[in-house]
Write a structure and sequence with these properties.
Elements (H helix, E strand, L loop, with lengths): L3 E4 L2 E4 L4 E7 L8 E7 L6 E7 L4 E3 L7 E6 L4 E6 L8 E10 L3 E5 L3 E6 L1
Parallel strand pairs: 2-11
Antiparallel strand pairs: 1-3, 3-8, 4-5, 4-9, 5-6, 7-8, 9-10, 9-11
């Protein structure tokens, strides 16, 4: 099992930047993949960016070139650097960990609100 705690959300004007952090209660390299997802009001939760144990990065097309996912395994922390923010980036951002076991288990943090004003 793993607990995930996100921080770093807030209110920012369009064009601004935020950095989200996700601290895990165990070694993040034990996960197949760590990622960030977001959910806008009235919409389904969508993948934003993921990083695999081997370091492969995946981004949704709408954030490519603006967002960067990274990790610090010594701190059991995954980051999401968000630049050139747009109003459509508004939503609750969730950290996810995909942990292998008998099955593959998905764990979620409580979410952090990001609001981008125009």
């Amino acid at each position: 099992q793993v607990q995930l705690v996100e921080s770093g959300g807030g209110l920012v004007q369009a064009g601004g930047s935020l950095r989200l952090s996700c601290v895990a209660s165990r070694d993040i390299l034990s996960a197949n993949r760590m990622g960030w997802y977001r959910q806008a009001p009235g919409k389904q939760r969508e993948l934003v960016a993921t990083i695999t144990r081997g370091g492969t990065l995946v981004y949704v097309s709408s954030v490519k070139g603006r967002f960067t996912i990274s990790r610090d395994s010594a701190k059991n922390t995954v980051y999401l650097q968000m630049n050139s923010l747009k109003p459509e980036d508004t939503g609750v951002y969730y950290c996810n960990a995909e942990i292998p076991g008998t099955l593959v288990y998905n764990y979620w943090g409580q979410g952090t609100q990001v609001t981008v004003s125009s």
